[in-house]
TrEMBL record:
Key word Transmembrane present: yes
Protein's UniProt name: LiaF transmembrane domain-containing protein
UniProt source species: Paenibacillus ottowii
Pfam families hit by this protein: LiaF-TM
Transmembrane segments: 7-26, 32-51, 58-74, 80-97
Alphabetical list of InterPro entries matching this protein: LiaF_TM (IPR054331)
Residue ranges of domain LiaF transmembrane in the record: 10-102
Keywords, in A-Z order: Membrane, Transmembrane, Transmembrane helix
Length: 103
């Protein structure tokens, strides 16, 4: 098999189609595939938007990129909230410890 420039996309499409078909036939795997596809679509939108901006179609690229980021932020909100809370706690503790060192 020769390696051409377009083979990477073909392999990605074959793997993605296989995962989707496997998800339809096995109930447990289908739940996992649904979540995986839910994250892959916004990531693909971000990549397509970036590609559009780089190729010169800035308006369409930025629209797709921003939509992908917003959708991905919505999907990752379960992780962003607790990370923000932990960051605020660490920042507050560091502010208290800095105040004690100054005196």
């Amino acid at each position: 098999m020769r390696v051409n420039k377009g083979n990477g996309l073909a392999i990605v499409l074959i793997v993605l189609g296989s995962i989707m078909l496997l998800g339809k036939f096995t109930p447990f795997f289908g739940h996992f595939v649904g979540h995986l596809i839910g994250y892959l679509i916004p990531i693909a939108m971000i990549m397509l938007g970036y590609y559009g901006v780089k190729r010169g179609n800035a308006l369409f690229g930025w629209i797709v990129l921003v939509l992908g980021v917003l959708i991905l932020l919505g999907k990752l909100s379960w992780l962003i909230g607790p990370l923000l809370a932990i960051g605020l706690i660490i920042f507050g503790v560091s502010m208290l410890s800095d105040r004690r060192r100054r005196y």
